[in-house]
Specification:
CATH topology: Rossmann fold
Strand content: 5-15%
Shape: globular
Distance between the termini: 45 Å
Helix content: 40-55%
Largest sheet: 4 strands, parallel
CATH class: Alpha Beta
Radius of gyration: 18 Å
CATH superfamily: HUPs
Strand order of the largest sheet: 3-2-1-4
CATH architecture: 3-Layer(aba) Sandwich
Number of helices: 11
Order of helices and strands: HEHEHEHHEHHHHHH
Structural class: alpha/beta
Amino acid sequence: MRKLDYIELIKDIENWIKEYVNSASAKGIILGLSGGIDSAVTAALSVNALGKENVVGLGLPCESLPQDLEDAKLIAEHLGISFLILDLTSTYQEFLKSTTPQIEPNKMAIANFKPRLRMSAIYYAGQSLGNYLVGGTGNRTEIAIGYFTKYGDGGVDFEPIGKFYKCEVREIARILKIPEKIITKAPSAGLWEGQTDEGEIGITYNILDEIIYRMDFNLDLEGLKKDDIEKVKKMMISSRHKIMMPPTFKIT
């Protein structure tokens, strides 16, 4: 993996956040706190850039594990930011109840509706509280393979850590003094009980980071499992639509 001057990069990210928010004449940043490392790092960078009074964290339980909300509270308290809890469980259940007679949903449709509902709530809260930009929490590894929900956690105003691999986000987290239990917590989107990112993807983040890093910089893939490489390539190709603007027909 590449060697980075994390201290300088953190300063650069924080300056970039500040400039971006100021250019939009926004009041600050609002983001969902999942209890995981990515949202914790994004929140910490935002606080350093803008001050804790200009950052709002949201807890958005939706048939979620109680521990995730407790971890989100821990992060908010650690950073000293405002933290609001909007329980979306009843809204989520009512939606499924009202649509099921006409549409029989599958597992992924149900799972992806949760982050889409959460993102609607974040934008609603951000505008209601006074023109907050929505901070994205995606990292390079997940963005590259499309491991996010289109118009869900992928629907944000900017991505402060979007160019950093998962292992690099962990390094940034330690420098920012994120609680260790958050750093070592098994990454999970909380889509269903027992779900973990690595379990669902079928490859560990360490291997994903290495494959995507080498592909990003056109480096030799020797020594890596062929099946893993092919799986990552397939995910990257099939998820291109997630990171592009919707195509439009061109008149020729």
